[in-house]
Write a structure and sequence with these properties.
Number of helices of chain B: 11
Strand order of the largest sheet of chain A: 2-1-5-4-3
Distance between the termini of chain A: 43 Å
Largest sheet of chain B: 7 strands, mixed
Oligomer: heterodimer
Number of strands of chain A: 10
Strand order of the largest sheet of chain B: 1-3-2-4-13-5-14
Helix content of chain B: 25-40%
Structural class of chain A: alpha+beta
Shape of chain A: rod-shaped
Structural class of chain B: alpha/beta
Chain lengths: 477, 282
């Protein structure tokens, strides 16, 4: 299942968590500010409502009888005085209308002339209960029914100047914004750095893991987190893991080395056999010469035999020397190398009475694109394994084939097939366990070195190991 | 003019104030009725008048203030008060029962004018321009605050009730100025003496109004007593005190605050102009 990579996923954890902490702090600050402002708004609304209510009630009592008697002057006189003392009452404008909605008097008669309809002002006025400082400008216009002696005689309108309340709110908002901004900013910074500090060991661990291109490195003691926190345990576990991996790699290296020695040992055994056989013959010839020393033709014939036997021994010694030459980076491969391999493997074949199919379809030019030592080792190891797998009177085969831009080596045998471990070791360079296919790890490493590819096929009762080796820039090392 | 700030107390109708240090010594105080023919809302003026009159009369003096001329005239007629500062119009209405005991002299003569005022920015230039507006009268029994304008309207062949869209009574010349200055009414009829005094005492208020016409010179509002009590000691005392105001320091101070020059004596003939207008109204 593929998952879309979000932007957040690209930001490292060591940045994301501190940023989240900072963001939460800022959110908290904003919420707190909002709470304070809401409360302030409510308190202010209650204040202005209470103030307006008291003033409206006082005005109602004062003008009630005059409204009932339609005494315009007295109404005006009352409103004018109320406004003149408006320092405490904050009513900037007051108007009284009769029950028919006509102005009786207003503290500012020019704004609401006597006998004109109050409609315009009434339309803008709100009831006391709906009074809300924020919803209006600097002034709020309130209306209340004018009740006198139990009956409604008119309506009273009052405009209150709330600019000081608005100023107060603005001032508090500004202060709040400044203070909360500074406080949350500080907290956000503290949160950011605290979180980053807490996450530092994780970052370090990630860096150590990330840095190890070949083998992971342990975290040095100086960088180890202190105490018994999860992070410290994680770091310790990581170090244990790295040590275990290093130990395992060392074991594998030793096993691979041993593998080489094992294959060398087996080769030595066949070599000893190979040398021992002609030696028996040569000793017989030597006896014959001693016995018939006076018969020159017998001596000449025997000398020829000795010469042939010694030449064979020389060839075997040379092939062995070439196979184990210390300077592996030397010569390009040639057809002679293939002859050497055949010479080296034949005693084993003969010994097991096996049949060897030898098929070389590659020219000297193609072979010369590969280093002789590696090619010899690969082919010899695969053939030795095939011989071992095929058993007594089994069949093994080697086929070298030129392919486009490369060389294909196919080694086949009639054995029971590769074990899972052996196949894994050959194809993916899996761990070496004692037993199983010998030398596969060596083959894998050499093929990999030459950018080649190993493929194992089981077909018609035969195991086929195919090695494809491209002629690349690294062809000759 | 710090006394301006102390006004307002005596506005309420029926306020009774005792003045004079000698009240306890001299028995029943003299009772003087006051109307809004002058700035009766000024405590400093009332104080100075009380001090000057009580010391001149030799007995304590008590002011009776009522909201309307009618009420004060009623008090005087029924004998509840010894004298009252009335307007020429109510005096003439009750000429057979009342006598003038003193008339103030304003700007050299016992005369004043009625002013027709409008807002300072009003384009009206005469009474006819005010047709259909809202008008402020002072008191239905005031000469300058009602009678003059009412008769002017009648003289141009109109009726007071229909000439203005609406007219109101403010029961005080200062209130007429307030009504016009504040814009409650377009125009107002006011005592010229009060308007001029206001122009000095409260220029912010008076200067928001302007005069568009002045009446002929008419008899200044007089101090009156009941004719049947003219010979009485108490009435003589108050009439002497009024006449001699200009001679004592306290009296001079009171007159200065009232912006008056002094007091004189006069008969009904001083009010002939008002009588003319009364005939038109009837």
């Amino acid at each position: 299942m593929t998952r879309k990579l979000r932007i957040g996923d690209r930001i490292p954890l060591s940045l994301r968590l501190p940023a989240l902490a900072a963001l939460l702090m800022i959110l908290l600050g904003a919420l707190a500010s909002q709470q304070v402002l809401t409360t302030l708004k409510r308190v202010q609304n209650e204040r202005i409502r209470e103030l307006a209510r008291i003033q409206m009630e006082a005005l109602s009592v004062a003008v009630g009888p005059h409204v009932l008697r339609n005494n315009i002057w007295e109404i005006y006189d009352t409103l004018d005085r109320a406004k003149a003392g408006a320092g405490a009452t904050r009513a900037a404008f007051i108007a009284v209308a009769d029950s028919a909605g006509r102005v009786l008097a207003a503290s500012d008669p020019r704004r609401a002339p006597v006998d004109t309809p109050i409609g315009d002002i009434a339309a803008r006025a709100v009831n006391l209960a709906d009074l809300n400082v924020a919803a209006w400008g600097k002034e709020v216009l309130v209306k209340e029914p004018l009740i006198y002696q139990g009956r409604r005689v008119g309506t009273i309108f009052a405009e209150f100047d709330v600019s000081d309340l608005l100023d107060e709110r603005r001032r508090i908002s500004r202060l709040l914004l400044l203070w909360n901004g500074a406080a949350t900013g500080f907290l956000a910074l503290v949160g950011y750095f605290a979180m980053q500090r807490m996450l530092a060991p994780v970052t370090r661990l990630a860096r150590h893991i990330g840095r190890s291109t070949d083998a992971p490195e342990p975290i040095p003691d100086a960088d180890m987190p202190q105490g018994d926190t999860e992070i410290a345990r994680l770091a310790r576990t990581y170090n244990h893991m790295v040590e275990a991996m290093q130990a395992k790699a060392e074991t594998e290296r030793r096993l691979a080395e041993r593998e080489r020695l094992v294959s060398l040992g087996r080769l030595s055994a066949t070599l000893a056999h190979e040398i021992n056989n002609p030696l028996g013959g040569l000793l017989n010839v030597a006896d014959t010469i001693r016995e018939y020393a006076d018969r020159p033709e017998v001596v000449r014939q025997s000398s020829d035999l000795i010469g042939r036997g010694l030449r064979h021994l020389r060839d075997v010694a040379r092939a062995t020397l070439d196979q184990h030459r210390i300077d592996r980076t030397g010569q390009p491969a040639s057809l002679g190398d293939l002859d050497d391999i055949r010479l080296l493997i034949e005693p084993e074949i003969r010994h097991q009475e096996q049949y060897l199919a030898w098929e070389i379809d590659a020219g000297a030019e193609t072979l010369s694109a590969f280093p002789a030592a590696s090619l010899r080792q690969i082919i010899l190891n695969l053939l030795l394994n095939a011989a071992s797998a095929a058993g007594h009177r089994g069949e093994i085969g080697l086929r070298l084939q030129e392919v486009e831009n490369g060389l294909k080596i196919v080694v086949s045998d009639t054995g029971p097939g590769l074990s899972r471990e052996a196949r894994k070791r050959l194809i993916s360079g899996g761990p070496v366990t004692p037993g199983g296919g010998v030398g596969f790890r060596v083959v894998h490493d050499l093929v990999k070195e030459l950018n080649g590819k190993v493929n194992v096929i089981r077909r018609d009762g035969r195991s086929l190991i195919e090695v494809d080796m491209p002629i690349g820039e690294r062809g000759i090392i | 003019m710090q006394f301006l700030n102390r006004r307002r107390f005596l506005q309420a109708a029926g306020g009774v104030v005792m003045f004079g240090a000698r009240a306890a010594r001299a028995g029943r105080p003299l009772r003087l009725g006051l109307t809004p023919v002058f700035l009766d809302n000024d405590v400093a003026v009332l104080d100075a008048m009380a001090l000057a009159l009580s010391s001149a009369a030799g007995m304590p003096i008590e002011f009776e203030q009522r909201r309307t001329y009618e009420e004060v005239t009623g008090l005087l007629l029924q004998g509840s008060i010894d004298a009252a500062w009335l307007c020429g119009y109510p005096y003439l209405q009750h000429q057979d029962e009342l006598s003038v005991i003193a008339v103030p002299i304003w700007r050299g003569q016992p005369l004043y004018q009625s002013y027709l005022i409008v807002g300072a920015d009003d384009p009206a230039r005469s009474l006819v321009d005010l047709r259909g507006g809202v008008h402020a009268f002072s008191d239905p029994d005031s000469n300058s605050g009602y009678l003059v304008t009412a008769t002017d309207i009648i003289r141009i062949g109109e009726r007071v009730e229909s000439f203005f869209h609406r007219s109101i009574f403010t029961y005080g010349h200062r209130n007429v100025v307030r009504a016009v200055a504040g814009g409650l009414t377009r125009s107002g009829s006011v005592d010229g003496y009060v308007w001029e005094a206001l122009l000095i005492q409260e220029p912010d208020l008076a200067s928001r109004t302007k005069i568009i016409s002045k009446s002929e010179w008419l008899g200044f509002p007089p101090f009156c007593s009941r004719s049947d009590r003219i010979g009485k000691r108490r009435i003589k005392a108050i009439s002497t005190a009024l006449s001699g105001l200009g001679e004592s320091e306290a009296g001079k101070r009171a007159l200065a605050l009232l912006q008056l020059d002094g007091m004189t004596e006069a008969g009904p003939e001083l009010y002939a102009g008002i009588a003319e207008r009364m005939k038109d109204l009837a």
